[in-house]
Every structure is written in structure tokens, then in C-alpha cells.
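Re: the 486-residue chain
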Amino acid sequence: MKNRQMFVLLDKITHNLPITENNNNNNNNFEFYNWNNSLLNDNGVNKEHVLCIGQVQSGKTKNMENIIINGVKNGYCLIIVLAGINKILFGQTNNRLQNNINMDKTRFIDKHWFDKIKINIESGNNVIVNVLKTYKQLNDLFDYIDNINLVNKKVLIIDDECDFASVNISPENESKIYSLISKLYNRIHIGKLASFTGTPFANILSSNSEELYPNRLVVLKHYDNYCGLHYFNNSNNYILTDFKKNENISIIYRKVFIQWLISTSGGLIDDEYFKSELLINVEINNSKQEIIFKNIIEIFDLFYKNIQNEDWIKKIIIKWCEDKSIIEEYTVDLIYKKIKEIIVYLHNDIENCFILLNADNDSEKFKSGKKKFCIIVGGYMISRGFTFEYLTIELFLNVPNESKVAVDTLLQRCRWFGNRKKNNRIKFLKIFMNKKVLDSLKESESYLDLFQGGVSTKNISYYVEKINILDKININVESTSAIKRK
């Protein structure tokens, strides 16, 4: 039966027919639906720019993989992937694509082999080019692409995180990245520019980005186990942690670290193979991140020195635990035993278990799941596109100083969003934040509600009008354009 359903879906896609979903909403249905609406449903045009909107951490990279695979099957000989805005994000996306896409006569090419693009296309190979979204790499790539005859070739450009750097900022002078992406798109005679983002407001509102203004908008569907803004706003996973400037911030770090130890212990009692990550995402400034990192190490050292002091540890557990249900379910005695295991594990590999991510050259330090237990400190580098698969506890105070937080900035930093409902991990996941962040998250729902999953429309002016209305009565979205589209 499953094979027959797959055959029917493939037949519908091949003939550009609408897909009727069943009540199971399985993964294949989502992927095929998103592919069909994003690229095949082209309204008879040879070339168009499709803005693909998927909620933050909802599987956009998986959809990119699916679009690339089906693109090759449907005759796209050149696929250019703008796969990141920094080396950490680029490496994560690049590794996933190369590990999951393995097709005959398909070649992956990076910045070192741009000169091989032309000969591979002329030899009948399909070429997938991964490029970092920087001026140098894009400029070098264009120099090679500009010398290839693409008149009868189907070309696909995938722009990941298209709300960042791909939108023209100034009305007087074109931004460099925007200009180069425009030049690449203008070299296409037959094909698509598929731009992906979880926060499309700048792309929709910009009045300075006419060359890359989308022809069509597609809202991607996500899998059933996705936990996003609406889920968390109605859950008990948030812990408010307000503090005054004259208070000792290290108290907050200690509270977060202890809760991570307790929650991870609960996970280990349920499953001995339980992996766990603690994320401290609180400061943009790199020097402050380094101070925080040292502070976390000092807190850990204190626990290591007192790990055999059972009474002291148990008192700490009872006093500092923010989620008392874990103590009630697993008992303090069992939690203490598991904390000892965690502390010893961290001590035996402290260099690899405590990670500071705040520079491009840090990209190889962290791969989610590489270590059983991991503590990460960062800010800007980890606040967009980065996936923490085994996240258990996060301290999230990395917000601007304004009275309200812009929707774009806020949602992109919600690294706890994702497919979290599997393996009962969600009950241990806790996010520490202040009331300003929580209030902004609540207000952000009205913006996301504009984009209903599976809707495909050419009438983008509808979204412009609705967003502008919300801006007047709610919090402003962050637009990179100097003048908003009316």
C-alpha cells in the first residue's frame, strides 16, 4: 500500500497535479507538497522568484534537500546553494546536503573548484555549487557562471536565510550581496530562485529590492512533531528569570546550570543514552561571552570539588530546582547519582564539552550529538540557523535594549523551536528568559498567523497591508529597507 501511495504521489508531481493529503500527514506528503508548490507549480512561466516561508527550525534544510533532489530529477543541471551567512551555519548545511544527497552524475563543487562547473555541465553532469553568502565567494562564482551558455539550461538558485544580506538596504546604492545575487538570477533564462526564510518581513516589505522582489509566496508545511511559537507560548517550558542590574548575574548562571544537571539526570533515568546540551545565549559582545564562559567553568569546578559531598549536592538540588516535578518523579537520591555521572563525564573531557562559539573559525568545535553532554556559550554566531538537536536547557537573554523586541530578531534566535516531540524530550526542555522576551513572543503570534502552512499565492500585497496594520497596533517588524513598501 505504501509503495502504491508513493507511486501515485510521484505520478502527480511528474504531471504537475495537485496533491490531496490524507489524514496521516506523513513526512513524504509534506516534502512532496512543499516541492510541488515551490517549484513545479510555476503558472507557466520560464523563470520566477519564489519566496519559501517555513517557521524557524521547522525543517527548511530538509525541504532544500528535497527540492535539490527533485530539481535534478526534473532537469535542473546547475543548482547554486547560498548555504549560510557564516562558516558555522554554512558547514552545518553543507555537511547535511552532501551526506543526504547521493545521485548519479551529480557533482558537488565548492569555492576551490568553480573552474570545474562549466566542464561538468558540458559533460552532462548535474552540478550542485555550495557557496558562502559573502561578497568574495559570490563574486568569484559569478565570474565563472558568466562564461557559461545557460540559454537552454534549467538553473536553480537556493538562497537560505534570504532575509539576511539578500535584501537591499540602501535606496541610493545597492548592497553588495544583493547586487551579486541579482546578477546571478539575471543570468538565468529558465529556472527558479527559491528563497528560504522563517522571517520574511524584510523581503516582503522592502521597497529597495525590486530586482529580487518575489513573484510568488509559498508557506511550507511542517511535520506533526514540530514545536514552534504557538506550541511554546501555550506550554510550561518557559521559566521567567528577571534580575536587576545591581544583582549578581552569576546567580542566574548557577541556577541555569543546576537545572540543566537536574533535567539531564531525569533524562538519563528514563534513557541511559540520553544526550543533553546546555545553551547560554545572552550577550552579543564577544568579550562578555568569554567572561560568561569562564563563569560557567567556575560553577562547574565548584560542583566537581564537592561532588562527593552528598548532603551539600542534595540541598543544592532542592533549593535551586526550578522544575519540582522532576524531583517528585525521580527522587533526589536518583538525581544525585546521575549528577555525579554527568560531572565526571564533563571533567574527563572538559576541553570538548565546554564550547565557546563566537567566531567563524569555531565552526569545527561543535557538532550536535558529538558529545553526550555539552555546554555552549555564544551570541551572534549561534542565533540564526544553528541547530541544537539535544537542547535541554537554554538561558535566553540575548535581546536588544529596546522596550520591545523586533519579531524578526526574536524568532530567529529561538533555537529551542524544532521537531522536539520525539522521545519524550520535550518534558525536560526549559528556556530561561525575562518578561520582556515572553511578552514579545506572545505578541509575535499575530504576525505568524498571517502565514498559514500550505498556502500559495501571488497576491503578496495582501501580506504587505496586513503587516503594516499590525505594526501600527503591535510591535514593529525589523525591516532592512530604508523605506517600507506600501
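The CA atoms of residues 242 and 434 lie 5 Å apart.
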